[in-house]
From TrEMBL, chains A, B, C:
Name of protein: UDP-3-O-acylglucosamine N-acyltransferase
Active-site residues annotated for this sequence: H241
Subunit structure as annotated in this protein's UniProt entry: Homotrimer.
GO biological process, one term: lipid A biosynthetic process
Family matches, as InterPro entries: Hexapep, LpxD, Trimer_LpxA-like_sf, UDP_GlcNAc_AcTrfase_non-rep
Entry annotated with the keyword Repeat: yes
Function: Catalyzes the N-acylation of UDP-3-O-acylglucosamine using 3-hydroxyacyl-ACP as the acyl donor. Is involved in the biosynthesis of lipid A, a phosphorylated glycolipid that anchors the lipopolysaccharide to the outer membrane of the cell.
Gene name for this UniProt entry: lpxD
UDP-3-O-[3-hydroxymyristoyl] glucosamine N-acyltransferase non-repeat region domain: residues covered: 25-91
Length: 342, 342, 342
């Protein structure tokens, strides 16, 4: 399928890396250390895989200077092999070119403004007051609601919905099924029934953010919900209204942040972790998978909640004891007191 | 953008509130206490924000009688300021008027019945035997499957899918990506493989319910899955087949209810909380975020499970001890017995 | 609505079951023991419902030989009544016949290959290099991306998105909102920002798999994400890149599996359970609801984590003690040491 080809020496030059071995070798793809063939490039960044280096059949391996001596094939030497590999691998990605212009099946309101260099796919719907900037690509079935803006070079892969008052920065990548700008969940209880609070804010997504498949980001009640630049959200994440996420923070699949929480910069939120509403989380905080943040976190560091997995019968006995843990602690205190009284 | 304007005295009259201060002041929007300007209305319902009242620049503030004296601007006095604010704020919401009729790009089966006062947006698909009642609004990309009914004045914001045998009451609001009436997850294990159980029931959603973005509600295996009136579901909630949710119950984002569970009226289910299958939860039960309901709950009250968040190193030590909690309890019992034997 | 009818004796013959009682009785539907009427078939497979047998008004009941004597109506005797019922009930499912051919509103690329016996619904988009095989049915709003294949007799109910390099086997059933083949979440941290790793692999789904509503399955980074045959996924499940799921494994709603984890055959993963990345789970492992798999599991069996639900005040006291559990254990050790020293 591929006709993309680079010499090892060309890759070294392009990414300012040193190379060892056969610089003339032709590379036409990438692969794992164990799976790559002689025309493919691989990488070693995790020492767990060091043993695979000896037997790799890859044409060239990206690795750090410590590993060069053990490399049986050509090598590209990088300070951070994983980052260097990420840049190189991008050369070998086949993204079908998106044709400029609007597919005939798309429905574009007369009050919408779509750049001539944007690409609007089949069955897209662009509503009044929406703006799609230069080079933006909308795959099939995207909906850009009223007063939404898709920034330059952004890409909505397919079936993305921007409801209303959503602004995407430049180079934002949104995966299928994501819903951005839906109503925040705001309710007032009036004696015996709920009254809905209108959600009058919007959503602002910074440059270079990525939003995963089926992720939902609600618009603010009064002010906006905000993701600063380079925020990376995996699939099925829920961001409630008026949340603020600092730049370069990444969240793994199924994480959820409740209303008006403020997450710092450079945080890492683990899979299915949760943050309660109105809390603040400092910069450079890591939350491990499935933990629930129940109070504000003022200091960088790693935080956890939850219980380790055990064989079910053993776990049942321990879990049953948890229900009386306070009593157990009191009994220990009593024993200590007895001891002292002796 | 807005040209909606009310005098303070008009708002007081319309919502039967007392006003203090300048009744002639013109209000054209709403905002937070700290952000609202002189032509905007704000509210004080949470005493945490009392300090902001002194310095607010809002044109008028909705508050209760205790706070009137501290209000530096016009005031609207309400028994429940949050509820009063919800009603007033709705006046300032700009919902683009939905045109009556069927968009030319929509696909409506000849056997479907669509009211002349309904609005069917671009690329909607209405299948045979479906009914869309008076004043219902379907945004772009909605699918109304066979034998589904969308009740009067209901609104499917965009890209909502009703699969089959789904009945929505009146004034139901459904957000993008929601799937209602998908197959329940019913399987029988036949020696070495799974056999699917056909899902022959439907879904009934009561009047005034709200269903969040990317929420899924499966149809029943034999009987229907039911949400009574005024049930409020946030985003990414999963309701399995044959679940029954009582009136006025609200669930926060990512909650999940397993098959045939029966949740009472006026319950509050926290974010990412879960309810196991076939359980019953009484009326007026609150489940805190991320808790798992593992047994039926017979009495109103607040219920929780889970572990508090801690710094990771500290947490690891405690979590490791949990694996031997039963043994620890036995050791305490032994010490107590020794004591008694002394 | 139904005109599907079978005599009890016909059902017995068709499914090789013994019958007792009136073989001439006409059956035109199925129902629960408590709800079925005289022309409906019901079943008893769970002894919890035995008491309902005495008063059932069903025309015939599928049950095992032990229960025949207690059955007040005609009976079909099966080794596994639930499996037999699953097969019989399928006769009474009304799936609207899908017309062969491509709906005029669908957009099919010239480079796509669609079988003449396939059915492509309204607003579907089939991209270049995609293949739809014999008898496959795509409901409205499905997207089949470049280099995706929909196997023979597979059914995409509605609004399913296959992004790229996705291969579905035969008879695969995918529910609305599912996204298969979205980018895996691969990022390298380059000093002060994220660099995306291109996701160059695909997804392979085996024969007879079922994928729930709004479930997401990412494509692999280099190799493929794989579901072997007869894997059953409920709604809102997240399968990350390069996960491998063994044949006949079933996962309940909202479960999530992180990158490169390998799940065995015949596993049962409970609702909202999680598996961390790069772990291995043996065959025939059951994980209970909301548990987090934090280490590889080498042996078949049932595994759990988590804490039982309690009334909130009681829970708070116990949870507070958990934060000092390590210290408590040390105090118990000290008491034991004192005892020994005595």
């Amino acid at each position: 399928m591929s006709t993309i080809q680079y010499r090892v020496s060309e890759l070294a030059k392009r990414f300012s890396l040193e190379f060892k071995g056969d610089g003339e070798r032709i590379i036409d793809g990438v692969g794992t250390l164990s799976g790559a063939g002689p025309s493919q490039l691989s990488f070693l960044s995790n020492s767990k895989y060091s043993a695979q280096l000896a037997t790799t059949r890859a044409g060239v391996v990206v690795l750090n200077s410590d590993a060069v001596a053990s490399c049986p094939t050509a090598a590209l030497v990088a300070r951070d092999p994983y980052v260097a590999y990420a840049h190189i691998a991008a050369l070998f990605e086949h993204l079908p070119a998106a044709p400029h212009g609007i597919h005939p099946s798309a429905v574009v309101a007369t009050g919408a403004r779509v750049s001539a260099t944007a690409s609007i796919g089949p069955c897209c719907v662009i509503e009044d007051g929406a703006v799609v900037e230069d080079g933006a690509v909308l795959g099939p079935h995207c909906i850009v609601g009223s007063h939404c803006t898709v920034g330059a070079q952004s890409r909505l892969v397919a079936r993305v919905t921007l409801v209303t008052r959503v602004t995407l920065g430049k180079r934002v990548l949104v995966h299928p099924g994501a819903v951005i700008g839906s109503d925040g969940f705001g309710l007032a209880f009036d004696r015996d029934h709920w009254v809905k609070l209108p959600q009058l804010g919007g959503v602002r997504i910074g440059d270079d953010c990525e939003i995963g498949a089926n992720t939902t980001i609600d618009r603010g009640a009064l002010d906006d919900t905000v993701l600063e630049e380079d925020v990376r959200l995996d699939n099925q994440i829920q961001i409630a209204h008026n949340v603020h996420v600092g730049a370069h923070t990444a969240m793994a699949g199924c994480a959820a942040v409740a209303g008006s929480a403020k997450i710092g910069r450079y945080c890492m939120i683990g899979g299915n972790a949760g943050v309660l509403g109105h809390l603040e989380v400092a910069d450079r905080v890591t939350i491990t998978a499935k933990s629930l943040v129940t109070h504000s976190i003022r200091e960088a560091g790693e935080y956890s909640s939850g219980i380790p997995l055990q064989e079910n019968r053993q776990w049942r006995r321990n879990a049953a004891r948890f229900k009386h843990l306070d009593e157990l602690a009191r009994r220990v205190s009593a024993l200590e007191k007895d001891k002292t009284d002796d």
